[in-house]
Structure formats: C-alpha cells, structure tokens
Amino acid sequence: MSLPSVRVSQSPESKFREYLASRPEPKRFTNQQRELVEHIFARHKHFDPNELIEDLKHAGRQVSRATVYRTLTLLVDAGLLRRIEVGTRTVYDHDYGYPAHDHLVCEQCQSMIEFQHPRLDEVLREIAAENQFQAETRTLVIRGICAECNSARAAKRRLVM
Question: What is the tally of structural domains in the chain?
Fold first, then answer.
C-alpha cells in the first residue's frame, strides 16, 4: 500500500532550515544539504545511505559521503526522517508529510510494506493513557516473510516432496 502525503504547513526545506537555525549552536544550510533534502523528498521511498549516494550519483548531484551521513542524522533529529533498523541495515523513511504508519519487513528479501490501521492507533493511545504515558513518536516494525517469499518457499517444498 502506498501512503498518500498529507498537507504540511512548511516545505521540508523550510522546516529543516528552521531546525538548523534553532539549535543552540546554529548551523548554516549548505547547497549540498539543499540538494539532499530536495532529492530525498522528491519521492517517497525507503532507502539506506548507500542507496541514497548511488541515487544522487545517477541524478548527477555531487554530495560527499560525510555530508550524506551528517545530514541524515540532522534530518532525523529535525523530525523529517525516521530511522528504521532492518537486520544489519539502517533505512530511512519520511516522518514529515506522511501519516503515521508502521512497517512489515520481510526477513528474506528485506522488502518493506507500509500500513496503517485506525484500531492500532486507538489501541496504542489507550495503552499510553492507561500508563499515563505521553507518546511522542513510534516505530513499529513487524518482521516475518512476505507473500512472494512465502510462495517461493512453498513451491520449493513441493518440489522436494
């Protein structure tokens, strides 16, 4: 399921600029950071730093590896991206401009399926309230085997029998 974007009051670039300026030691917004923010928010997809660096190269954008890693950390701190651990990989997902959602991750092919369900949101709010807990963010990752890998596994078993 592909999630629709939601209306936001600021562009990702404006929100990031505001975040950088609001830090105790304000940081300046560089051209390389602008290129990264534009590239990342031009499409909604999960990515790891190496995929991002390759995508940038193919798009003809020059951004250093160090700048990519530093900027990804800042984008997470600013609330624009979410970091998700998938096995030994760290992938990033849009946390700004998209509704709250969770992920199913295939342990075999590493595919990620985004989902949202109003009853899950309701249950999580209820649990937080019962515990007098003020939830700020969440990352729910359910690991298992996707339909495609499950079918392939079942076909392989039939061949062996």
Answer: 2
Would you tell me how many other CB atoms lie within 10 Å of the CB of residue 155?
9
Express each pLDDT in 41-65 by its tens digit.
Answer: 998 889 999 999 999 999 998 889 9
Same domain for 55 and 119? no
Whose tokens are 């530093």? That residue is: 70
**Residue 19 and residue 68 in one domain:** yes
Helix spans in 9-136 (H): 12-22, 31-41, 49-58, 65-77, 118-130
Beta-bridged to residue 144, according to DSSP, are 106
| Global pTM value | 0.81
